[in-house]
């Protein structure tokens, strides 16, 4: 599986395409917020003959869902996320208004993911881990065969997701990181929702927020 990263919108949010060898792909957290960014994403998909199969949200903060409606309308795919972030998703229009961001509201999810679920994209298996704390329904996607994690806003290079937003809780986040991520082998790569990729082993030693 190949990971293609885009960085979109006012929050420098990382959008990922998870592309299986058979060209089926998952679109994760499409943050595209205008025509130009939508075109960058859809042109990449068209040019590479990709077949989008599902839309995944690591969580439903506004910067991760700005392009949800665009990709669902264009590719007729289902939205999958954790049930506990549903009210965050539903707050999207109000939050977008607060930030004064144009927002075409996301459709409702039709697939709910939970701890331990295995998602198949082509021939690739992704394990779902439940990692609340930054938001109540945050999840990560783990590819054990290739030793990487799509981490959303849980663990960043040298940092962690903020916990001052509604539903956030530092102790819950720290517990998620220690029990679900730091228990993975050191050589697993984290592809976060903002900033650069990092390694589990590096963060266990150097992360100043959660040891
Ligand atoms: Zn977030």
Description:
The chain is α/β, with parallel strands linked by helices and 211 residues long. The chain has one domain: 4-Layer Sandwich (Metallo-beta-lactamase, Chain A), CATH 3.60.15. It has seven helices and 14 strands. Strand 8 (124-130) and strand 9 form a beta hairpin. Zinc ion is lined by residues 59, 61, 134-135, 153, 161.
Brief digest:
With 211 residues, this protein is an alpha/beta fold.
What is CATH's topology name? Metallo-beta-lactamase, Chain A
Quick one: how many beta strands?
14
Structural class: alpha/beta
Radius of gyration: 16 Å
Text of the CATH class: Alpha Beta
Poorly predicted parts: none
- Overall form: globular
Mean pLDDT figure = 97
Characteristics:
7 helices; 6-stranded mixed sheet; 27% helix; 29% strand; Metallo-beta-lactamase, Chain A; alpha/beta; binds zinc ion; 211 residues
Q: Helices and strands in order, then pairings?
A:
Layout: E1 2-8, E2 13-19, E3 24-28, H1 35-47, E4 51-56, H2 62-65, H3 68-75, E5 78-81, H4 86-90, H5 92-99, E6 111-112, E7 118-121, E8 124-130, E9 139-143, E10 148-152, E11 155-156, E12 159-160, H6 170-181, E13 189-192, E14 198-199, H7 200-206
Parallel strand pairs: 3-4, 4-5, 5-6, 10-13
Antiparallel strand pairs: 1-2, 2-3, 7-8, 8-9, 9-10, 11-12, 13-14
The chain binds zinc ion.
Zinc ion is lined by residues 59, 61, 134-135, 153, 161.
């Amino acid at each position: 599986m190949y990971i293609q990263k885009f960085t979109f919108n006012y929050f420098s949010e990382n959008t990922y395409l998870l592309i299986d060898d058979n060209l089926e792909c998952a679109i994760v957290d499409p943050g595209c917020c205008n025509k130009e960014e939508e075109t960058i994403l859809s042109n990449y998909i068209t040019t590479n003959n990709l077949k989008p199969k599902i839309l995944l949200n690591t969580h439903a903060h506004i910067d991760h869902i700005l392009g949800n409606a665009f990709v669902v309308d264009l590719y007729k795919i289902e939205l999958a996320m954790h049930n506990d972030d549903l009210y965050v998703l539903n707050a999207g229009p109000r939050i977008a208004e607060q930030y004064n961001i144009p927002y075409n509201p996301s459709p409702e999810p039709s697939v709910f993911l939970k701890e331990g679920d295995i998602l198949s994209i082509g021939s690739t298996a992704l394990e779902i881990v439940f990692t609340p704390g930054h938001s109540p329904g945050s999840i990560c996607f783990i590819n054990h065969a290739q030793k990487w994690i799509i981490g959303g806003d849980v663990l960043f290079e040298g940092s962690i997701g903020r916990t001052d937003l509604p539903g956030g809780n530092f102790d819950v986040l720290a517990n998620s990181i220690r029990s679900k991520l730091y228990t993975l082998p050191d050589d697993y790569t984290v592809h976060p929702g903002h900033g650069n990729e990092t390694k589990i082993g590096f963060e266990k030693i150097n992360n100043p927020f959660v040891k």
